[in-house]
Amino acid sequence: MTSMRALGRDRCLQLLASVPVGRVVFSMRALPAIRPVNHLVDGNTVVIRSNLGGALASTATQSGAVVVAYEADTFDLDGHTGWTVVVTGTARLILDADRQARYERLLHPWVDEPMNCVIGIDCDLVTGYELAPA
Amino acid sequence: MTSMRALGRDRCLQLLASVPVGRVVFSMRALPAIRPVNHLVDGNTVVIRSNLGGALASTATQSGAVVVAYEADTFDLDGHTGWTVVVTGTARLILDADRQARYERLLHPWVDEPMNCVIGIDCDLVTGYELAPA
Known about the structure:
Two copies of one chain form a homodimer.
Chain A: E1 2-6, H1 9-17, E2 21-28, E3 31-42, E4 45-50, H2 55-63, E5 65-76, E6 81-93, H3 97-106, E7 117-122, E8 125-133
Antiparallel strand pairs in A: 1-8, 2-3, 2-5, 3-4, 4-7, 5-6, 6-7, 6-8
Pfam family, one (chains A, B): Pyridox_ox_2
Protein name (chains A, B): Pyridoxamine 5'-phosphate oxidase family protein
Organism (chains A, B): Dactylosporangium aurantiacum
């Protein structure tokens, strides 16, 4: 059996930055929605890219900012160990040209589709757990 | 580069059933919430276990049923290939004693904590994508 141990904020952000992919969680037409994306962590901001027609980007455009959760995890499926980190915070389109260009240089979408939005998620609330042998 | 291809419902449920772990997505105090859990797929129902104090279980108890999303994915982080499946549907506590006992036999929580709720998520809406070399 495995036990869960809460992780501190710094450790959570370190683990989040150690993996390229996570999942952005938001509401779309009053339904819970989730999309895997790749990310980078820049200080207290999780940066993702999306296409302007994408569900999150269009919500963020309509309302200026939207509260999302962003989750990443790594599990050993045999050993039942691993970790999960969830960031909850405001997501905003990054419109500053210099920041936008910098993130576009650093973060390359996996999918061969136009990704003309850069979105920053503030790490307002950061929680995480480690699953380790009990 | 990788391209995205939509998957049919049957293939999505097959992929979901092929992995032990996913992430349940719901709203908690008007904020998006996400928790990794292990699951099984029984026909058109995704079955998970939770502790009664758990956020999802308490929401489901209060309102009888709650709409959630359930996501699973597998990615090759080097090749940028993989798949993601999202089920959106009503989550309900399974209260029928026989079904509850059957799922408790089949689905064992990873974490050494009391998991006295069995929750079924109806596969009302099933979407999925495969990421393959373009």
